[in-house]
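Project standup — Tuesday

K.O.: blocked on the structure for the chain from last sprint. Re-posting the sequence here as requested.
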Amino acid sequence: MFIGKVVIVTGAGKGIGQEVAVQYASKGAKVMIAEKDKKASEYTKRLIIENGGVAEVCVTDVSKPDEIITLIEKTVATYGTIDILINNAGVSCWTSPYDLNVEEWDKVININLRGVFLCAREAAKVMKENGGGSIVNMASTRALMSEPNSEAYAASKGGIVALTHALALSLGKNRIRVNAISPGWIETGDYEQLRTTDHIQHPAQRVGRPSDIARACFYLTAEENDFITGINHIVDGGMTRKMMY
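H.V.: unblocked you, prediction finished:
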């Protein structure tokens, strides 16, 4: 399905991003690992190479526009084009709105939202010249529901959902599809340490895994699904549909 496709995954050093990168490589894609942590990047690359995949690393901080441009240039220089971009890099901040300072707010917005826009824009410039492509932006169910003290994160993820459908309209004429995924609880630590109560609170009867998000990425970026664009695909085991009162 993805043999020979060129895929950029941001925030691919661990968790969801790492799994997405590894899974695309397992399907025959050529992966560019975009991650600001060099050691984590190299570990992801090693996982891919040891399993016969193709991957390179571009150490990238998506809060820095010049590094995003370098990422795109390096990908094209290495693989010749860009077919798929997975905008996964992100940070969180759990600070009371009474105490949240401008620097903390700007850090979250610049990485989670501005970084998504700039990566999408620069990748789209390449996709436009090569017949199209697919972009997936990683939002969150926290774009739709919240806990206290999550203002910066919620705003960034809500912004991603809106940005996604705006980009889908702007880029569609160039055969570039843009969709979002909103993960719910995706356990990136020790899955075996989860409790029964953690699992059964979900209508799906289990907590999510990074592989669930990788498969959602496959669905949204598959060429045969070219009628799907502008959506926010919620992958949360049904939790956002569960009445809590």
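K.O.: great, moving the ticket to review. The longest helix spans residues 102-129. The first strand starts at residue 6 and ends at 10.
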